[in-house]
Amino acid sequence: MFEYLADIITNLFVVAAAVAAITIINNRNQQRETVNTQRKMLKSDDEHANAQMRTAGTPECAECGKGGDGLKACTACNLVKYCNRNCQRVHWPKHKKECKKRAAELHDEALFKQPPPREECPICLLPLPLNPEEISCDDCCGKIMCAGCMYAGHTRDSDDRFLCPFCRTPQLVSFEKALEMTKKRAEAGAAVSFHQLGHYYHDGEMGLQQDYDKAMELWLRAGELGHTLSYDTIGDAYYNGEGVERDEKKAKYYWELAAIGGGVHARQKLGIVEWHAGNACRSMKHYMIAAGAGFEPSLQKVREGYLNGRVTKHDFEKTLRDQKEAKEAMKSDQRDAAAALGPWF
Ligand SMILES: [Zn+2]
Ligand SMILES: [Zn+2]
Ligand SMILES: [Zn+2]
Ligand SMILES: [Zn+2]
Predict the structure, then answer these.
(1) Measured in angstroms, how far is the CA atom of residue 64 from the centroid of ligand 1?
(2) What is the pLDDT of residues 252-301, one digit of tens each?
(3) Which end of the chain offers a freer environment for a tag, N or C, measured as fewer CB atoms within 10 Å?
(4) 2-29+115-341 sits in which CATH class?
(5) Using an 8 Å Cβ cutoff, are 181 and 138 in contact?
(6) Ligand 2: centre distance to CA 263 (Å)
(7) Residue 134 CA, ligand 3 centroid: distance in Å
């Protein structure tokens, strides 16, 4: 029995060492899909606006009235067209109010839309957990796996436990080797690898010199490639003034991008920001979406909202059901076993 326990303890140390070479990646929903979804959403909004324009019968320049091909739509609202930038500039004082109103509507439509479905663990095929400590990413293949699958892989009773549970690459490698693998994947366009490199530069890890500018640049690239969490991280940096000048507006901007891609933590922060700005309704909308995706702290806020009359009974009950469903979908015995072992899984 004691030998058995000693063996388990040894295994745990081995696993801990392996995990040390693994970067824990925070909660992240979508990679490329997010950007595509955002683009698709904007496209459908474009189509909507175009349809409106067609029915409104304004196929000519809003300023000079000239028709023809070559007219360019106002990219902010898509409600009007111009033959050139000069016409647009001249028309701006007349168009400004309508443009800003429509742009704000388009923005909110994208922001409060139901987020895309949660990305799945490539091994167990269940939606990835929301808790960043229950998700890991190996340097080898850059697959984001759930702690349950990491646990099952690394506690196997053979040398297999030293391999990446997904791609079977040996895990106990030097930092140089791990860094090389991450850089290689980034060069191949993997969003998560840009994100990971950003953290290495931010923290001065893996033998790299600490470099906040470089970290921001890499996170931005990751975000553009669809790694939602990177936008959340950038938002945090602006909010905390860490490595950049503190800027709440920019923080909100990046959190919104993260929320659109499905980031529940970003949505919770937006809920708080909107609440403090006196926008209780927007705040509750954020909380309801995040709670519906399974995020408990947001459900607490929705409950408070229900008790003080800001959330209807119908919305509260729906949010409760959605949360239950989302949490059940993310649950497995392996994940429970990993959670019981501690946060380094
Ligand atoms: Zn014109
Ligand atoms: Zn406009
Ligand atoms: Zn899994
Ligand atoms: Zn791998």
Answers:
(1) 4
(2) 999 999 999 999 999 999 999 999 999 999 999 999 999 999 999 999 99
(3) N
(4) mainly alpha
(5) no
(6) 29
(7) 10
